[in-house]
Amino acid sequence: MNNLINVIYNCRKATYLIDKRLISKITFRESVELRVHLVGCSFCRLYVGQSQKINQMISQMLKTDKKPEFKLGDDFKAALQAQIEDELNKK
Amino acid sequence: MIMDEIELPPVDQMPDPKNWVNTYADYLYLFAIKRISDEDQARDLVQETFLAALQSMHKFEGKSSERTWLTAILKNKIYDVYRAKSSGLKTEEIKNPIGEEPDFFQENGHWKKEHAPKQFGLDDFDSLAHKELNHILQQCMQKLPAMWLSVFTMKHMDDETTDFVCAELRLSQANFWVIIHRAKLNLRACLQKNWM
Fold it and tell me: The complex's ipTM?
């Protein structure tokens, strides 16, 4: 019962469960406690959507953002090419 | 992952190192820079990847494409960097790195007034604003302690399993969840602060 009261009135614990739930399972009990908390806490309800959005943004950013400005310089490539050919000739 | 979708079907190919630089160097560099924002280090990793690939060419079986094979070697090297950055940290240092934002909560567990979430347009931005928001997010991520950023990158960019991340970085599950939570709290706060 103590634990229950803890989550219901505790935003720190509630946000922990919100973040965990996004990528893993939480227990049935935790999920009930979280639901009760969210009914009464508008801040944490906002947090649910924002936390989810941040996850989406990160996975999108890392997979699709092309950052075309990041290219290796020609000098570096030439040196690398020479190094590879050196290694091949050693064999 | 995106890169797998455009993969050619596996062919019975032999590695062709003379064309590696031309064909894969920029791709691998971009792959590294997204995961390690240090350009010099990313460049070194591309070089090391090619050299390591030359050494283990006999292991290449043609089951995957050359690019998938080279990318896997690079990814291992990136994770080595992550591991090096996180090794030797004590639990306390993992949870409370220097330079972290102040606690967002009061002692009783409620949000501190100044840190409480507010609407700040995360959900209703157009594509132009989206680009700008992405930029802010990237800057906010760079402010995270290295260990937290490693965990976040492996989990959200590379979709690694929790068990895998914990094993690679020698983290307990409990610490993993603490990091995920703390990193998210900090990112969200940083976005709210810089976007509003």
Answer: 0.81
